[in-house]
Amino acid sequence: xxxxxxxxxxxxxxxxxxxxxxxxxxxxxxxxxxxxxxxxxxxxxxxxxxxxxxxxxxxxxxxxxxxxxxxxxxxxxxxxxxxxxxxxxxxxxxxxxxxxxxxxxxxxxxxxxxxxxxxxxxxxxxxxxxxxxxxxxxxxxxxxxxxxxx
Length: 150
Prior knowledge:
The chain is of the alpha+beta class. It has helices at about 5-10, 15-20, 70-80, 85-100, 125-150, and strands at about 35-40, 45-55, 55-65. Strands 1-2-3 form a three-stranded antiparallel beta sheet. A hairpin with a 6-residue loop joins strand 1 (about 35-40) and strand 2 (about 45-55). Helix 4 runs antiparallel to helix 5. The chain is globular and about 45 Å long.
């Protein structure tokens, strides 16, 4: 395959459609926790606001400034993030990381759809951007739960 063909495959119509329609793309007013993460290599950033009640996400908002791959990843996560607990989000994050770095399978339900990002395995400089939303969400959940215990 040529480099141009590889890029066309990487930036598929599905990825571009996801990037154009990110759920929960509004910041929250008075969230329990806010976390901003940045991918140092490419400069992508994601800011996550959320509330947690009984260990589950009850409100969620995000501001995504990333490449189409990072935006698509944020969209996939946000489609099913409400009602999720830390174990579920961590399992999705770990599966996504394994998919990108170890040729593992994509995350399963409730975070299905990440197989669209499998072509990004060969683009290590995009991995951090793809991981940002899940990592920021996990950190925000931990901070919200810690605040609840204080």
